[in-house]
């Protein structure tokens, strides 16, 4: 039996620049399916923006989006990475890595302002980024007595998108 699911992902890297009280924030988002891929992307953004005041990061990836990390990069604790991760979680997208580059503009934003700026720039970038729908296909072998066929098939069709079922004798 083959089961098909669909997931939404970012089609290609996307960047969004916003200015908040003279500080410039550049949101960089892309699909990263593994933690190693996310770390490599983060390293590339940090290298590209070496002169930035901060490069804060967040990503979620892996089976069932089980790997989730965030980093405030010297901003006050919880004001950058976590709002970015929350924006990723709320986006409906899978396998996302986000970096927010900040060039300090001379005006302190306060903790609430930082939370809104970091979370907001990533949220906007994720909304505007080009997306694609990926099909994920899993193949399973299920063995059961013929007498249970109706019950099992009804349950499977209710909870799974089944593309193909093959029957064999035991």
Can you describe what's shown?
It is a single chain. The chain contains 4 helices and 8 strands. With 170 residues, the protein is an alpha+beta fold. It has a single domain (10-130), classed as 2-Layer Sandwich (Ribosomal Protein S5, domain 2), CATH 3.30.230. Strands 2-3-6-4-5 form a 5-stranded antiparallel beta sheet, sandwiched between helices. Strands 7-1-8 form a 3-stranded antiparallel beta sheet, with no helix packed on it. Strand 2 (14-20) and strand 3 (23-31) form a beta hairpin.
| Percentage of residues in strands | 25-35%
Number of helices: 4
Content-based structural category = alpha+beta
Taking strands numbered 1, 2, ... along the chain, how are they ordered across the largest sheet? 2-3-6-4-5
Mean pLDDT: 93
Q: How many individual β-strands?
A: 8
- CATH fourth-tier homologous superfamily: Impact, N-terminal domain
Order of helices and strands: EEEHEEHEHEHE
Total individual domains: 1
- Major sheet, described briefly? 5 strands, antiparallel
Second-tier CATH architecture: 2-Layer Sandwich
Q: Which features would summarize this protein structure in a list?
A:
170 residues, alpha+beta, Ribosomal Protein S5, domain 2, 4 helices, 34% strand, elongated
List the helices and strands and how they pair.
Elements: E1 2-10, E2 14-20, E3 23-31, H1 35-48, E4 54-61, E5 67-71, H2 81-90, E6 96-103, H3 110-128, E7 131-139, H4 149-159, E8 162-164
Antiparallel strand pairs: 1-7, 1-8, 2-3, 3-6, 4-5, 4-6
Helix pairs in contact: 2-3
